[in-house]
């Protein structure tokens, strides 16, 4: 059975970005290590402004993996949600992917 973790780290960026982001990733890594056996499937969810370049940037982060990526546009077409189901080898790898995707301007991780 696949566990789904919804991560709202964008809230941490609204406060003290460096300190809270680091604390968030440490907590996430610890929770994943305690709750799952690795390798394990993991579901990432992102919301971005509807922009093909940004979608391509996120897809590129998951190149050369077994990622299954689904997109869905918002009702008004202003935003796109991406669901990325992929096998991760460890909690560290999950955190690495979040950090990589966080470089995409305007991304919100859920």
Describe this structure in words.
- Helix content is 40%, strand content 25%.
- It has four helices and four strands, in the order ααβαββαβ.
- With 110 residues, it is of the alpha+beta class.
- The protein starts with 9 loop residues before the first helix and ends with a strand.
- The chain has helices at residues 10-13, 17-35, 52-61, 91-101, and strands at residues 40-49, 68-73, 79-88, 108-109.
- It has one domain (10-109): Alpha-Beta Plaits (2-Layer Sandwich), CATH 3.30.70.
- A four-stranded antiparallel sheet has the order 2-3-1-4.
- A hairpin with a 5-residue loop joins strand 2 and strand 3.
**Which second-level CATH architecture applies?**
2-Layer Sandwich
Radius of gyration over alpha carbons?
14 Å
Number of helices: 4
Can you tell me the number of structural domains? 1
The biggest sheet, with number of strands, parallel, antiparallel or mixed sense and barrel status, is:
4 strands, antiparallel
CATH overall fold name: Alpha-Beta Plaits
Q: How are the strands of the largest sheet arranged?
A: 2-3-1-4
Structural class by sheet pairing and helices: alpha+beta
Following the backbone from N to C, one meets helices and strands in this order, namely HHEHEEHE
- Corresponding CATH superfamily: ACT domain
Low-confidence stretches: 1-19
DSSP, total strands? 4
Shape: globular
Give the helix proportion (percent range).
Answer: 40-55%
Q: Which whole number gives the mean pLDDT?
A: 83
């Amino acid at each position: 059975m696949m566990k789904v973790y919804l991560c709202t780290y964008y809230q941490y960026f609204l406060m003290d970005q460096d300190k809270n982001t680091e604390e968030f990733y440490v907590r996430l890594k610890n929770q994943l290590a305690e709750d799952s056996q690795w390798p394990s499937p993991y579901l990432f969810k992102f919301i971005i402004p509807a922009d093909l370049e940004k979608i391509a940037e996120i897809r590129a982060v998951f190149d050369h993996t077994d990622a299954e990526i689904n997109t869905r546009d918002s009702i008004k077409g202003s935003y796109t949600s991406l669901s990325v189901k992929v096998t991760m080898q460890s909690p560290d790898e999950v955190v690495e992917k979040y950090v990589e995707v966080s470089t995409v301007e305007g991304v919100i991780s859920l």
